[in-house]
């Protein structure tokens, strides 16, 4: 189970990633609100993360890192544009998380095969299982 600080770190990472290419838009914000609700973080606390950064902590469990990577991929595709800078940034985040670069690239390649570039969870998990570190 993740600590409250870890949850805030995950949300802060999502916010920083969403803001990396443009100001946070309504769809991105709503997506992050939904993640906050799933994590049990109050909306007021989430809103405070919009103005203050929390240190990004890499989740200890590989399964948690994969889930966070999946969230980042979903967030990246909300605006339906994949800029080269976003793709490079998400690759670097995957590397910093200690995820297989082959698996992360495969996920980014595979997402184009699905409607709205939403890679089904079972497909994502099978990609990482094949390339397990």
Question: Could you describe the 3D structure shown?
Answer:
With 133 residues, this protein is an all-alpha fold. It has one domain (4-130). Helices cover 64% and strands 0% of the residues. The protein contains seven helices and no strands. It has helices at 4-19, 26-39, 43-49, 62-76, 84-96, 101-110, 121-130. Helix 1 (4-19) packs parallel to helix 4 (62-76). The longest helix is centred in the first third of the chain and has 16 residues, at 4-19. The chain is globular and about 40 Å long. The two termini are 22 Å apart.
Q: What is the gist of this entry?
A:
The protein has 133 residues and is mainly alpha-helical.
SSE topology:
Layout: H1 4-19, H2 26-39, H3 43-49, H4 62-76, H5 84-96, H6 101-110, H7 121-130
Helix pairs in contact: 1-2, 1-4, 4-5, 5-6, 6-7
Number of helices: 7
Shape: globular
In N-to-C order, the SSE pattern is HHHHHHH
**Cα radius of gyration in angstroms:** 14 Å
Rounded to the nearest angstrom, the distance between the terminal CA atoms is 22 Å
Number of strands: 0
Strand content: under 5%
Largest sheet: none
- Category from helices, strands and their pairing: mainly alpha
Pick out the low-confidence regions: none
The residue-averaged pLDDT reads 92
| Secondary structure: helix percent | 55-70%
- Domains counted in the coordinates: how many? 1
Assembly annotation? single chain
């Amino acid at each position: 189970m993740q600590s409250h600080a870890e949850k805030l770190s995950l949300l802060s990472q999502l916010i920083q990633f969403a803001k990396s290419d443009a100001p946070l838009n309504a769809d991105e914000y709503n997506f992050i609100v939904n993640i906050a609700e799933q994590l049990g973080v109050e909306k007021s606390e989430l809103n405070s993360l919009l103005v203050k950064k929390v240190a990004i902590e890499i989740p200890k469990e590989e399964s948690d890192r994969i889930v966070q990577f999946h969230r980042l991929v979903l967030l990246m595709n909300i605006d339906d544009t994949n800029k080269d800078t976003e793709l490079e940034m998400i690759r670097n985040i995957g590397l910093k998380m200690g995820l297989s670069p082959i698996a992360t690239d495969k996920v980014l390649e595979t997402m184009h095969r699905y409607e709205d570039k939403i890679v089904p969870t079972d497909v994502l998990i099978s990609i990482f299982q094949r390339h397990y570190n």
